[in-house]
Design brief:
Its EC number is 1.5.1.38. One of its GO terms (biological process) is alkanesulfonate catabolic process. This is FMN reductase (NADPH). Belongs to the SsuE family. The chain has one domain: Flavodoxin domain (Rossmann fold). Helix content is 47%, strand content 22%. It is built from six helices and nine strands, in the order βαβααββαβαββββα. Strands 1, 2, 3, 4, 5, 6 and 7 form a seven-stranded mixed beta sheet that branches. A two-stranded antiparallel ribbon has the order 8-9. α1 packs across α6. It is globular, with a radius of gyration of 18 Å. The model has no long low-confidence stretch (mean pLDDT 95). The protein binds flavin mononucleotide.
């Protein structure tokens, strides 16, 4: 299974990207191929101008297209998901997330905006064709931070929720694989019956 993580924070030291990495490491431990791309990997001008025809946008679309699971992380800005992430998502094709499993993650200064993933991010993911959007994981800045060594610190309750989200991704991917295999078998049997 190919997994892509999309980091929506403009910060080099990012709390939301820490959640993303926890999930990426857990999925990699299960033997899956995980790669990362983020807002900071795209030229700012391409993002601001929505340069769909540019090479960076084309590379982004190819990476998304190759993934069967997309994990998206965003900081909460002004009670919604980050505008920079929206600029990145705007470079994708109309149904870029169709058929993919999508896991949204978010961090905010306050627990008051935890529903921003539901009313802000999920409708956009859905507009991009995603039909398998898992329950997101939201953490406050008190729950995810950095130690004096500069390394990320995520409280246990959030780590547990991230691990549960990983288990849901794996379960959903497993049932999608089984459904596809059964469908292929059904098609082969129908062709054989015809003759
Ligand atoms: C411009 C700006 C606006 C913000 N607005 C909110 C907000 O409305 N609600 C909230 O809970 N946190 C808000 N925050 C705090 C960030 O969401 C929070 O620190 C988050 O963990 C940052 O994630 P990052 O480190 O991945 O960039 C805001 C931060 C910035 C810089």
């Amino acid at each position: 299974m190919t997994i892509l993580t999309l980091a929506g924070s403009p910060s080099a030291r990012s709390r939301s990207s820490s959640l993303l990495r926890h999930v990426a490491q857990a999925l990699a431990r299960h033997g899956h191929e995980v790669s990362e791309i983020g807002l900071r990997d795209l030229p700012a001008q391409d993002l601001v101008e929505g340069l769909y025809a540019g090479p960076a946008a084309a590379a982004l679309r190819a990476r998304v297209s190759a993934a069967s699971v997309v994990v998206v992380a965003t900081p909460i800005y002004k009670a919604s998901f980050a505008g920079g992430l929206k600029a990145l998502l705007d470079l994708l094709d109309e149904k870029a997330l169709a058929g993919k499993i999508v896991l949204p993650l978010g961090t905010g200064g306050s627990a008051a905006h935890l529903l921003a993933l539901e009313y802000g991010l999920k409708p956009v993911l859905s507009a991009l064709g995603a039909r398998h959007i898992l329950a997101g994981v939201y953490a406050t800045d008190k729950e995810v931070g950095f130690g004096e060594d500069g390394l990320p610190r995520i409280v246990e309750a959030i780590r547990e929720r991230l691990d549960e989200a990983v288990a849901s991704v794996l379960a959903l991917a497993g049932s999608a694989r089984r459904a596809a295999a059964n469908e292929a078998l059904g098609r082969r049997e129908a062709v054989a019956a015809l003759g």
